[in-house]
User: Fold this.
Amino acid sequence: MSAFPLRIGEKWTAMIVLCLEAGPRRFTELRQILVAVSAKVLTETLRAMERDGLVSRHCHDENPPRVEYRLTELGQSLLQLIEAARLWSRDNLGDLLAARERYDGASL
Assistant:
């Protein structure tokens, strides 16, 4: 395999996982929450996540068609990783900011 298949490192994946944590959402709902992401990028990211088994896409037989995305069991397992990153960030934010300040001060 030429690339490491860890999609969680991509820009929008973790945000989509968090948006779907409470349950399924429609594309338009995701767009309303993730206002900074373009429709094209959101579509591409959802397709890639579906390909990787992180989300499932369910089309309701209605007019107009209604499509919902939900986390799969595999996608739900990413919540643990995201929470670990949140805890690490909270616990280390002061050290991280201090390191940036030292670096930026030395660069002048």
Q: What stands out?
A: The radius of gyration is 18 Å.
